[in-house]
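Hi R.,

Here's the chain you asked about this morning:
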Amino acid sequence: MTHVVLESCIRCKYTDCVDVCPVDCFREGPNMLTIDPDECIDCAVCIPECPVNAILPEEDVPQDQLQFIKLNADLAKQWPSITKRKPAPADADEWKDKKDKLDQLIK
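And the predicted structure, written out as tokens:
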């Protein structure tokens, strides 16, 4: 089983999770992170680090977020690895509580 980055990461892209990952499984897109399911070891250390609760074990992904399991796997093949924390986007706090952000995802 792997962990999945959900919709709440879109336009927030806080990278606190990246610093604690022991296997460097995070991938960075223009305005979201993903987890490479082939690299994730299911250790869960990233979960409490995310300030927007955007990371869950695959088996706990809510029904309305199931598309993010495949999205993480697909985008992880395209996006580069990120291994160090970076500053969040300037407007991240404005987006952190918004819902229905999938249309904002830049692939």
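The two ends are 24 Å apart (CA to CA).

Let me know if you need anything else.
M.
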